[in-house]
Amino acid sequence: MVGAGAAALLVTLAATPVVLGAMRRLAAIDDVNERSSHQVPTPRGGGIAVVLGLFAGVLVLLLASGHGDAPDLLPMTVGVTLFGLIGLAEDLGGDVGGIAPLRRLALQLLAGLVVSTVVLISVSLDDAAILPMAALPAAALIGPLWVTGFVNAFNFMDGINGISAAQAAVAGGALVVVGHLHDAPALAAGGAVLAGAAIGFAPFNFPRARIFLGDVGSYTLGAGLAALALHGVVTGIPVEAVVAPLLLYLADTSATLLRRVRQGECWYLPHRTHTYQRLTDVGWTHTRVTVTVAGLVTAMSGLGLLGTRGGMGTRSAADLTIVALLTGYLSAPRLVLSARARMRLRRAAEPTRPAPAGPTPADGDIGLVLPRQRQAADPSLALDPAEAAGMTRLPDHLSDQR
Fold first, then answer.
1. Does the reported pTM lie above 0.90?
2. DSSP per residue over 164-221, as a string?
3. Per-residue pLDDT averaged across 80-86, rounded?
4. Which residue in 206, 253, 246 sits closest to 222, CA to CA?
């Protein structure tokens, strides 16, 4: 299992520079527009390297375990393949519109149906699996919607440097732990492969983005996580344990959609009003937002697992804490703006300090403010260091490049 994750990491790490050059030659570039969080045109399609890494990890797992003893990663592999192809078509055809929205949704639902079917067949053929009574019909009805919905949520959230690589790495690691504790080798192996591929891609996307995951990457990672989560729930693992690592992406996307519908906006049109995007708009850097999201996902993953290992009181407390963390995250942009407004009011209310006594210009003299270049050229006109330090610094978020 460790070898499979390492293989996914190394192959992704080695393949990404090759994919970067290929995307440049194919002119698969994300240009800067009013919805962008990046400031320079950047190649997309880096998820091709992620797909190669995932396939390498699965192959190593099969070779190391033997075909009969290997964990069942067929549902994840099918999901990665089908959604990866849809995403690749989007990335390569992005400049000419890609796939029409309704046709793309139909293809995604069809792919989700195939993934759900493979999950049900795989679990049904597993003699060791103990299926809850309602698991199979629920998976047959909800599975395609779940897989398609989470894939799109993952894609919508892939908007700043490193955020989706961090989400996949942390969630994959959490599924490794869940798989070990609940005797679910498919979750443990799949989580290791996903985490390895995400970590292998991260150096090219964080803290500065040399290439983006693109739809092929976000669809692939989203489909892999969704398939593993569905597999875990169908086999009887508590929902919190497998869904908690994915909740932040789901909450941000759902809250944004509901807010846009409530405000009468066209919810299906492109926008940049997700919570993570609003945090960058109020001054947080890409790095700060990504680290915050990774920390919250880690905390919620631990709480989801803790809740399933204790009694009812522990489970309720863990669930309420997860809700509190999500509420705090969704409210963060408003809280940041409120805190800054209060700080400005306090500063405005402070008494004005009297100007220091000093020589005044003689009658008829005019005080001149020289250009900064002139001040630098004449040492006698240099500013006090403390004063100069505060004059030229730009806000950190303006120097970010996605």
1. no
2. HHHHHHHHHHHHHHHHHHTT-HHHHHHHHHHHHHHHHHGGGTSSS-SS--HHHHHHHH
3. 96
4. 246
